[in-house]
Design goal:
The protein is mainly beta and 1050 residues long. Among the domains are: 2-90, Sandwich (Immunoglobulin-like), CATH 2.60.40.1120; 155-256 and 334-406 and 466-493 and 514-572 and 584-795 and 862-891 and 969-1049, Beta Barrel (Maltoporin, Chain A), CATH 2.40.170.20. Helices cover 5% and strands 48% of the residues. It is built from 7 helices and 59 strands. It has a 22-stranded antiparallel barrel. The chain has a 5-stranded mixed sheet with strand order 10-17-18-13-14. Strands 45-46-47-49 form a 4-stranded antiparallel sheet, with no helix packed on it. The longest helix has 12 residues, at 2-13. It is globular, with a radius of gyration of 33 Å.
Length: 1050
């Protein structure tokens, strides 16, 4: 009998297993929570799903569950073997973030800088490109966008400045652990088809964590040298009490803004005197694509329409008047409609989420549009208590007809070569009933008024461009993963993943018969497939005050890329038949195939003591197929540490205080087939294809480039997280760059690929967050980011002190983007004004026109000094107001549009009123002309004089002087604005909705300030596939978007 009474106590005194799940107040898992048996050193750590298993001993055991940012909770263990523990937020930072390889870490343990942006802060105003939505929201991250008129154009992102002489230092994008391509595509005639990163649906994003330096991204090896954008998508929830359904619908209108100011006094022509026909009728000189012609004062004259026999104005004289809105009239009101549905849920051992999103965009330029479909699915299933299978699947489809940009791109000539007298509404009907096309830029008529030709000389009717010469593109893409995780033992987990990213991009362009170019058609097909096979082992263990985490893994990366491009030659055999078979001459064709493999091993270990001291170390080995044998295997180590001094400093206002320090080494390789002789497909000889050897000298000793990164910082939180500050200092040295160097033609080659050059970036980053006001009814949350980066080119190749990245020439003006040893990356180079050495004043010729240097001048770097943003969110009752401002100080760019608009007499300044109250185009004898001041070069006397406007603006400034068209890229922009109201259940009553949110949204509503002249947005200087934005050649205009968004939760 005594034995029977003692048996239960004996059993409970032995070791037994207890499992459970740790969640927050919203029922969401709390990963990496510490679970410790009270009074013992027995402890474990919850996994990423908040689940844990621990063996407890003794009578009446008690577990202490704790996690940074939550109030620790004690749980008495009874007879049950399973427990659900809900922790309450303590008011301090939750501090669990996603790091490299998708590993969840407590932020307090990290010895390097990361910054997280929540999904709700990315979709405030329905930005379609997830990269663009980061602008101003992360310190040290610069996003150069593209105009909304491009409908998904390229968005460039740089982290901590320029780290490559080639400028190709875009960060790696990883979504739910799967690296994806962010390639961008540009086509003929100025087409910009955007970067592939926009295939990520912003509505699916839970959070984005930016790993800024090599220390943070070292585990990604070669591919992570320039930083990593970690995207975590939304998932279903375990134990969900119901299936959650959300409908999301947004609609907006888009209006073009920030148009270049134009003059409305003088019309088409090269001189102010009229040309006449044999009968004395005056006519507008259609052969001149400029506006230096007669004054638009209502003079009766024959204009372009009167020379078309099919036109109602044929042979008639009409008033020669300005059309002030002729450019504005070309643009339409665009629209964007976005609809989506999400279904999510789960039970005790599974989760699921399905979403579909459809976007329809009608562009602000005629006959432009974009269609986008996104389908995503994610699920997880616990096959057993220790075995879990998971999957993430994403499908994206894009198809569009987008506007061209750049010089000679589509309608861009309206801002560069045009006539201010043209009636855009008349040009809209560009085809007469007999099929004849209406153009404005024709050869001069015969003396009897007849026309020898109706073919345009230099420019097509902009509506002809829009409707007859569209560019079409489409992309189908699938990316995602399948994973299997095995919780072998408490604290030990093994995982395997197969990850894929595959897309096909199609681009078609055409030139119609009846325009100024040879009719033609081109087609390009680009295919990319990337596969990652990954294994990861994770081990976590706590012994009293000591915690240890160890990770080891391997990755096999395979990439296959190919393209085929074909184009007609010599015209089309049948007009309007756009097919390669219609080529009159032998079509041109090119093809390329790329294969690449990287085999990797990596490991990481972290040790913590008293949740106060942390030390991390990682190492990765990459073996790249693109590097030569013997130089293709390299190790990339990192070490970092953090000290949470707030655990020792007991000062009540201080919620968190952390010092961090890190060092890392990372590297990058090069494209395939550059280390051994290979043949390329050439042209056609007779009926046979040809092969050729590229003119680049092979370097069998090429090595990867290396980056050495040093970083130190401090993180502070005060007043229970009411105020936060994060400060980082960093230095990154990129050595052994892989560059292409020109070699003497006597070698038989044109260039060689070598290791040379060193770029250094030093900078600071500051992020300040806080809640200045927080009451039951009203709250104000704000975050301010600012970063300063200083770039220096330390060395190039021995004996080489300048490296030319890019160059451009038009109308006698040469522009270069060079880097010099001792200077910053990307100096703008070109002709400057000649100046007096003593006074700095411009030197003038004997005709009082400015003189310019024959040698090129260095105007400094294109890189900005400061970048940042300021985000505010206000909540009052059910109302919420959000605003996002981003800014840039410094940097510069060269503008073709500004130069050409002045050169051709379009710009407002070319017909301004001078100090005499006269128009600058009036004769000098009547008080006209442009006032110039300077020093006459011949006799060094100071001069104040008036010069002929055309000679000044067209012949001198618009043809020779580079300096005049350089502009500071500084700006302050209100990028996002949102005002919404959430209707809760108390308002909705018996309606089947749990909540409804209705918001008014605006994107790019106001450019608060910019140093550059009106007509150019310095925040939208993205130029297609170019690696860095420095040259504005005819960018699309800024688009302002205004709309509403409705979110319904069931």
């Amino acid at each position: 009998m005594a034995f029977m009474f003692m048996l239960p106590f004996s059993i409970f005194g032995q070791s037994r297993q207890v499992s459970g799940t740790v969640t927050n107040s919203k029922g969401e898992p709390v990963p990496l929570a510490t679970v410790q048996q009270k009074g013992t050193s027995n402890a474990t750590t919850a996994n990423d799903n908040g689940s844990f298993t621990i063996n407890v001993t003794g009578n009446n055991p008690v577990l202490i569950i704790s996690s940074a940012g939550f109030i620790a909770q004690e749980v008495s263990i009874g007879t049950s073997a399973t427990y659900s523990i809900q922790l309450q937020e303590s008011g301090t930072l939750s501090e669990v973030v996603v790091t490299a390889l998708g590993i969840n870490r407590q932020q307090r343990s990290l010895g390097y800088a990361t910054q997280e942006v929540k999904g709700e802060n990315l979709t405030l105003t329905k930005e379609q490109n997830v990269i663009g939505s980061l602008a101003g929201k992360v310190a040290g991250v610069q996003v150069t966008g593209s105009s909304g008129a491009s409908m998904g154009g390229t968005q460039k992102i740089k982290i901590r400045g320029i780290n490559s002489l080639l400028g190709t230092d875009q960060p790696l994008i990883v979504i739910d652990g799967t690296p994806i391509s962010n390639a961008n595509f540009a086509g003929r005639n100025g087409g910009d088809y955007g970067n592939a990163g926009q295939d990520v649906n912003p509505e699916d994003v839970e959070s984005i964590n930016v790993l800024k330096g090599p220390a943070a991204s070292a585990l990604y090896g070669i591919r992570g040298q320039y930083g990593v954008i970690l995207i975590t998508t939304k998932k279903g929830s375990k134990g969900a009490k119901k299936v959650n359904v959300q409908l999301n619908s947004a609609a907006s209108i888009e209006k073009v803004g920030n148009l270049l100011p134009m003059q409305n006094l003088y019309g088409g022509g090269s001189v102010q005197t009229w040309r006449t026909l044999g009968n004395g009728d005056k006519y507008v000189d259609m052969s001149i694509d400029e506006s230096w012609g007669p004054r638009m004062d209502g003079t009766m004259a024959r204009q372009v329409f009167s020379f078309y026999p099919q036109d109602s104005e044929y042979g008639l004289l009409t008033p020669f008047n300005p059309h002030p809105n002729n450019i504005k009239d070309f643009f339409e009101t665009g629209s964007t409609i976005n609809n989506g549905i999400t279904v999510s849920g789960g039970n005790s051992n599974s989760t699921f989420r399905l979403s579909y999103n459809n976007t329809r965009i009608e562009g602000v330029e005629p006959n432009t549009w974009l269609r986008r479909n996104n389908l995503s699915a994610s699920a997880s299933l616990d096959l057993t208590s220790k075995l879990t299978v998971s999957t993430n699947f994403n499908y994206a489809n894009n198809s569009g007809q987008r506007p061209a940009q750049g010089y000679e791109g589509g309608s861009r000539n309206m801002f560069q070569w045009f006539q201010r007298n043209l009636d855009m509404k008349r040009l809209k009907n560009y085809r007469y009933s007999d099929g004849t096309f209406l153009h404005w830029n024709l050869s001069r008529p015969n003396s009897d008024g007849s026309m020898s030709s109706y073919e345009p000389l230099y420019w097509n009717n902009p509506y002809f461009e829009a409707y007859e010469n569209p560019s079409n593109d489409s992309r189908d893409r699938i990316f995602g993963d399948v994973g299997l995780s095995w919780q072998v033992l408490p604290g030990l987990k093994l995982s395997g993943f197969v990850r894929a990213d595959q897309f096909t991009q199609n681009i078609e362009t055409r030139e119609a018969a009846g325009g100024w170019k040879v009719p033609g058609y081109s087609y390009g097909k680009y295919q990319n497939k990337e596969m990652n096979y990954e294994f990861l082992g994770q081990y976590t263990k706590s012994w009293g005050d000591i915690s240890v985490t160890a990770n080891a893994g391997a990755n096999l990366y395979n990439r296959r890329y190919s393209y085929v491009s074909v184009a007609t030659a010599g015209g089309l055999s049948s007009p309007d038949f756009y097919n390669i078979d219609a080529s009159i001459d032998r079509p041109g064709a090119s093809t390329y195939l790329l294969r690449k493999q990287i085999r990797s091993l990596y490991g990481m270990a972290s040790i913590g003591y008293k949740n106060t001291y942390f030390l991390d170390a990682s190492i990765r080995n990459d073996n790249s197929s693109t590097l030569p044998k013997g130089n293709n295997s390299y190790w990339y180590p990192s070490i970092s540490g953090s000290f949470v001094f707030s655990e020792l400093v007991k000062w009540s206002p201080l919620s968190l205080g952390k010092l961090r320090l890190s060092y890392a080494k990372a590297g990058s390789d090069l494209d395939p087939y550059l280390t051994s002789f290979t043949y390329r497909v050439g042209g056609v000889y007779g009926n046979n294809s040809t092969l050729y050897v590229p003119d680049e000298l092979i370097n069998p000793n090429i090595q990867p480039s290396f980056a050495h990164s040093y970083e130190a910082g401090i993180d502070l939180r005060f007043l229970k997280d009411r105020l936060g500050l994060s400060f980082t200092w960093y230095q990154q040295i990129n050595k052994n760059q892989i560059i292409r160097l020109d070699v003497s033609g006597t070698s038989g080659y044109g260039s060689a690929r070598i290791n040379a050059g060193e770029i250094q970036n030093k900078g600071i980053e500051l992020s300040v967050s806080g809640s200045p006001v927080k009451t039951k009814e009203f709250s104000w949350d704000a975050i301010f980011n600012i970063a300063r980066n200083k770039n220096k080119v330390v060395e190039l190749y021995p004996g080489m002190d300048v490296y030319t990245h890019d160059q451009n020439r038009y109308s006698g003006v040469d522009v270069f983007l060079n880097s010099y040893v001792g200077g910053s990356f990307g100096d703008l180079i070109g002709k400057a004004y000649q100046r007096d050495e003593a006074t700095g004043k411009i030197l003038l010729s004997n005709s009082n026109l400015p003189l310019y240097t024959q040698a090129n001048h260095n105007f400094g770097s294109v890189l900005p000094k400061f970048t940042g943003g300021f985000q505010n969110t206000f909540r009052f009752g059910g109302f919420n107001l959000g605003a996002m401002i981003d800014f840039q100080s410094g940097g510069q760019f060269f503008s073709w549009t500004q130069m050409m608009a002045v050169k051709t007499g379009l710009a407002e300044i070319t017909a301004a009123t001078n100090e005499n109250g006269k128009n600058v185009r009036d004769p000098l004898a009547d008080g006209g002309g442009v006032k110039v001041t300077g020093i006459r070069a011949s006799d060094k006397t100071e001069v104040t004089a008036y010069v002929d406007a055309k000679a000044y603006y067209r012949t001198t400034l618009g043809t020779h002087v580079y300096e005049e068209w350089l502009y500071d890229a500084s700006y302050i922009k209100l990028r996002e604005l949102r005002l919404g109201y959430t209707f809760g259940k108390s308002v909705l009553g018996k309606l089947p909705f749990s909540s409804v949110n209705l918001s008014l949204i605006a994107r790019n509503p106001v450019m608060i300030w910019q140093k550059a002249p009106k007509g150019i947005d310095p925040s939208e200087l993205s130029t297609g596939s170019a690696p860095i934005s420095w040259l504005e050649t005819g960018g699309l205009n800024t688009v302002r978007s205004f709309g509403a968004n409705l979110i319904i939760n069931f």
